[in-house]
Amino acid sequence: MERKTIELNALTPDGKLYHNPRLDTVEALIPNAPFQSCHAADLLETPSGDILAVWFAGSDEGNSDISIVLSRLDKGSDRWTDPVMVSDDPTRSEQNPSLFQKSDNEIWLMYTAQKARTPEDMPFFNYQYTAEIRRKKSFDGGHTWGPTETMFSHPGSFCRQKIQVLSNGRYIFGNWYCFDDDSRNGSDITVIHISDDEGNTWRDVEIPSSRGKVHANIMEMDDGSLVALMRSRSADFIYRSVSHDNGDSWSVPEKTELPNNNSSISAIKLSSGAIAVVYNPVGYSYDNSKTYWPDQRCPVEVAISEDAGISWNYRRIVEPGEGFTGRFNDINNLRYEYPVMMQSSSGDIYIAYSAMRRKNIKFVVVSESWIRGEKVFSGIDGDPDTFRHC
After folding, report:
1. Dihedral (C-alpha) 266, 269, 272, 276: value to the nearest 10 degrees?
2. Alpha carbon distance 46, 306 (integer Å)
3. What share of the chain is helix, strand, coil (3-state, %, to 5)?
């Protein structure tokens, strides 16, 4: 990142870029004032080189004052701006924003809007089953936004990841449906929205047997196949599904070797061709039939796969939190959760996540080589299989 940074002393929520000499990362706490809570960030680099960050902010998730806000790191600047509110419905809780660069001059802001809870009207768990997916457009690099449009009105429509454009021009948008039941969102199913006319019309494709497997991060591999990595409501593992027909059909999700704590993940295909995922490397259960919501959401780790998400041999901690690791004391860590990741035009990897129990959005800059490390393990006596089987 070619921006001026100063050595990290104590990270403060002033939006300034600091160099962390211990981890050799660039870090910032993006300002969140005057909001009490912040969550579910997304990042976008504009054609002009500015970086946009969006998230939802307000008093608490699900309340009517939860709105989408935006901060920007202008090209050449060393400080994120104070957030500005960009959504506009005071009766709904507006959540889970994502940014899509449709063209050089057009950005879409996608987000959910659900019925807000009140002291007099409290749901059993939440009102996500009332949500719809909305859109706003910007034609000036995210400085101003047009009117609100409803994109997907099916009750319970939820989004988190970006719209992806495949090599054949198809738009593909990994979403899920939430239902009004007592499963605590364990009955959510993944639905892929597909458009072959640049987002004018859409159709749905359900991933089979995806109950409780949501937040599909979709990546197109070099052979044309699509890989989706998903969060698990059972708080066991990250799951993987594959499509060989541009998203028209999908395999039944299968667990990977990476643990998941029923918190959001973010996966991208790097310019090298490898897949990278950022997540909390914390598992809680091995029972895939139940829903769990563990409080443990720390540390934050990034992992790299060279075989389309089957094995993950390169991993590094991005956020160690307060350092507690035992089964009986890891709960003492604050929560660092819902990471998002993108690769910039310079090749840097930008990561953002909710920090310190949603007080701020933390921004971190690393690189693929930083994740992999300088030394490459070659196994005992030069034979990797000897190491694996000893």
Report:
1. 30
2. 28
3. 5, 45, 50
Higher-confidence position of 187 and 88: 187
CB 107 within 8 A of CB 89: no
Output the six-digit token pair for 165: 């454009």
Cα–Cα–Cα angle for 138, 100, 207, nearest 5°? 140
Q: Are 161 and 266 in contact (CB under 8 A)?
A: yes
Tell me if 229 sits within 8 A of 190, measured CB to CB: no
Residue 380 in tokens: 């005992």
Distance from C-alpha of 316 to C-alpha of 318, rounded to nearest angstrom: 6
Residue 249 identity? S
Q: Give yes or no for a cis peptide into 83 (omega within 30° of 0).
A: no
Residue type (1 letter), 166:
L
Instruction: Quote the tokens at residue 121.
Output: 């009207």
Q: What is the mean pLDDT of the chain?
A: 94
Which of 255, 254, 250, 223 has its CA nearest to residue 237? 255
Token pair 């159709």 is at which residue?
A: 203
pLDDT tens digits for 174-222? 999 999 999 999 999 999 999 999 999 999 999 999 999 999 999 999 9
The answer to whether 296 touches 317, Cβ cutoff 8 Å, is: no
Q: For the chain, count helices (H), then strands (E).
A: 2, 27
